[in-house]
Amino acid sequence: MTNVQGTMRSLLVYALIIPVALVFGYLLATRSDAGLYIDWSTWGPIGAVLGLISLPLLLKWHHPLLFLTWNMSAVLFFLPGSPPLWFAATAISLTLALVHRMMDREMRFISVPSIMWPVAYLAVVIFLTAHFTGGFGMRILGGGTYGGRRYWLMFAGLAGLLAMTAQEIPRRYALLYVGLFFLGALEDLLSAVIPFLPRQLYWLAAIFPVGGNDLGTLIGGGSFGETVARYSSFNVACTGFFLYLLARYGIQEMLRPAKIWRFLLLLVALVLSLFGGYRSSLLLLGGVLMLVFYFEGLTRSKYTPMLIGAALLAFALLVPFANRLPLSFQRTLSFLPLRLNPIAVYEADNSTEWRLAVWKAAVEVVPTYFWAGKGLAINGEELELTAELQHRGMAAPEEGVMMTGDYHSGPLSVIIPFGIWGVIGWLWFLGASVRAMYLNYRYGDVSLRRVNTFLLAYFIAKILLFLVIYGSFYADVATFAGVVGLNLSLNGGICKPARAPALAKIQSAPPEQLPQPFRPLPGPA
After folding, report:
1. Is 78 exposed, middle or buried (0-12, 13-18, 19+ CB in 10 A)?
2. Is pLDDT of 223 > 60?
3. Is 123 exposed, middle or buried (0-12, 13-18, 19+ CB in 10 A)?
4. Nearest to residue 160, comparing CAs of 110, 87, 59?
């Protein structure tokens, strides 16, 4: 009887799988008119079937998948607008968490009201601003007004924070989640190497977009001698690896003689990230390194003169060879007193002058939008007219930037689109987040000390970069929210200091049993 049941079950499975496999084979072999992408009629049934098949996996692994995809650049090319993969991961994870909460009364989100209140306030400000300044129109939906995609970027970032705090990360998986979060950026290397792959694999570019400044520009030749090519994907991947090493091991652990190879690996990641040509990237990583060094309490240790000496030696060795380095590398170092190639210096200086011109033009309109923000909606006709005037030399380059809202300045990207109300909400969120992360750094579990130290240092460095060097509010909301969500999930909320003994017990205890005066727990050594 058992054999008969097993045979019937196998036949039923084959009866379902074989037709599906045949349909999939036919659809995958059918190309659209474009010849590169599979059309909607193909991906509709494929997506539906794959979604049903993967449902059990999503039910179990949606939380770690959210952290894994957070720093990926992969997109869902078969959906309108090609939204990022972490969009879908956020929607799935938050939906499943809410369903779980409705079905299980004992299930609770991590309680962090000091963070959730500014998150709710920001969401309201963003929604009202969009509603009264042109709506959520997007180019893919037609119409003369678009720019709504940037609103959804911010909403998704805030929703991702809620999804991350839906459950606490078990202590034994803490480092795994940290690795998923930061090493997900290594996926950008696929974008860099796709141009080198066989032509039959070029379809991967639909999932992992290839930028104009990726390693593929080397195919045309001259990228190291005729122009400054900035390899953004390479920079993102190396930066993610650098941050993971610092979060996983910390500086003091990596400087131990037996583990010095880890510190050398960290330096290699730092050097390779410079090929991106982004000065802000070097400033960010250097700032994180110094802040971690400070929060680990190493400023008065034997490591301070060692690191200062190593930095001076590296600079001395760099001086005679600086102008022979790749131009992208030289562009990153252009703010240092080095003798560099005039091409790299010119491009860096030209970028700085353009940015200052944009800031000057943007500051002049701040009073206009101080109380009621401009919003992020873009009038398509006005943008096309401005582009045409720029092409004819009748409009300054910064006019187009002012219209699109890409001010290349964190403070300006908040106050102009969202007014003073957006500034209040953003500063509220940043302040509450720094406080929560500091408390977790000070009073968190000993096993999380290195991770909490790094996350606090990284968050502060990102704030300084956002306020002083470069920032984009709508693009950076997800970055900040992800770091906060990771910190809160690892620590189960906000840690508190140990409480002093109750006064009644102290008064009733005999003199020889009186405790020492209460002192706060010491910070990490």
Report:
1. middle
2. no
3. middle
4. 87
